[in-house]
Amino acid sequence: MSDPQTDRTEIAGDDEAGDFALPQRLFDDVLDAVEAGDAAALEALLEPLHPADIADLLEQIDGRDRRALLTLWPGVMDGEILSELDDNLREEVIATLAPAQLAEAISELETDDVVDFIEDLEPERQAEILAGLDAADRVAVEKALAYPDYSAGRLMQVELVRAPEDWTVGQTIDYLRAAETELPEQFYHIVLVDPRMKPQGYVQLGRLLASRRDVRLSDITEDSFRTFHVEDEQGAVAYAFNQYHLISAPVVDDDDRLVGVITIDDAMEVLDDEHEEDILQLAGVGSESELSDSVRETMRQRLPWLAVNLVTAILASVVIGLFEETLVRIVALAVLMPIVASMGGNAGTQSLTVAVRALATRDLGSSNSWRVIRREAVVGLMNGAVLGLAMAVVTMVWFGSPLIGGVIAVAMMLTLFAAAVGGILIPIALERMGVDPAIASGPFVTTVTDVVGFFAFLGIASMVLA
């Protein structure tokens, strides 16, 4: 069997885009080892891999091979790998682990990772895992679980480094060296607190090490300092991290006392999850859709949105039915109708995607919404004019009718205009009504583009070609 590190080098040399992708040869070697029951060979293949890579491998092989792999090498499963797995697959994997084995696997994780790991489990399973943790960790996790879902309290970790605000650099460095075993595995700031445990600022480690021993910590604090309340919404926290380029930030309780810290990796994971959720919802495939989902789960997520689209399609068909006589007399209209609908749908999707992304990143608000709406309207009208003119020429050549060419040109202008305006107005309106625009915008925009497109095309044709 080949060395996975060698495989990575070969892949990197052949395809720069695949530098960090698992090579197919590794999958083949792992499955060969599993089929042969060769635990030593399997361990040699998996041991050098990063936990995220092992999680990817487990996600991409089928359930039978995955169960065989875990049975052959049970030592593969530690907390870091579990935390990297998709939620649905994680539940499947932990169901195969004994409580003691599971508690041991997550005992080395930071408290925020433990909370993220167990918050969606059944109460009985949570109790089993908590019972296997150290007393201090168990109390911290239980306290975090008491905070609202998707709050800063759930996102924070209690492991942090704090120092009195009147300490010097020398005192802080001496403290850090003496407290080596009690320090978090990773931290970025020293949080300064007053006697009431209220955070007053923080100092970056780099600046701490670059300063003289007699310099007071309060003299080298960072301007970026800000705190979050335990009940602040995670999405707002992640936005602030991205907006203000934060690395870490303290979390306070109702009395403004320091209770934890949020780090950039956790904040960016929230931001990434929200963007991924918006994309999935925009496509109507469910906000938690994963490649490891079962057929039944995938159907459950997608069928409702397809049903909604079916209703909108029926509405569009009703509009077409109003012009049945026109279609019977002029068959060319039936040939050209899909072009109008397709162009309108694509234009609406373009505006809708821009709007949903801008709303999610808070780039689109009351101050600039009308400017953006006007821009999209003008763009839709101009694109409609250009494409309508091109289609008019094609239609005249195709059917030899300048009138039909003029009809489709005007119809495409109106359709692309309506699609562009609808694609931006509908998500803005839904967002102001408190409805997630990523979830509900698609069917509404589809309805607008189809109804306006068909009504404009067939209505104008009925008047001009009657």
TrEMBL record:
InterPro entries found in the cross-reference section: CBS_dom (IPR000644), CBS_dom_sf (IPR046342), Mg_transptr_MgtE_intracell_dom (IPR006668), MgtE_N_sf (IPR038076), MgtE_transporter (IPR006669), SLC41_membr_dom (IPR006667), SLC41_membr_dom_sf (IPR036739)
UniProt keyword annotations, A-Z: CBS domain, Cell membrane, Magnesium, Membrane, Metal-binding, Transmembrane, Transmembrane helix, Transport
SUPFAM superfamilies: CBS-domain pair, MgtE membrane domain-like, MgtE N-terminal domain-like
Membrane topology, as annotated: Multi-pass membrane protein
Annotated TM spans: 303-323, 329-356, 377-398, 404-430, 442-465
GO CC term, one of those recorded: plasma membrane
Record bears the keyword Transport: yes
CBS domain ranges (all copies): 220-277
Location(s) in or outside the cell: Cell membrane; Membrane
GO molecular function: magnesium ion transmembrane transporter activity; metal ion binding
Subunit structure: Homodimer.
UniProt similarity note: Belongs to the SLC41A transporter family.
Free-text function comment from the UniProt entry: Acts as a magnesium transporter.
Protein name (database record): Magnesium transporter MgtE
Taxonomic lineage of the native organism: Bacteria, Pseudomonadati, Pseudomonadota, Alphaproteobacteria, Rhodobacterales
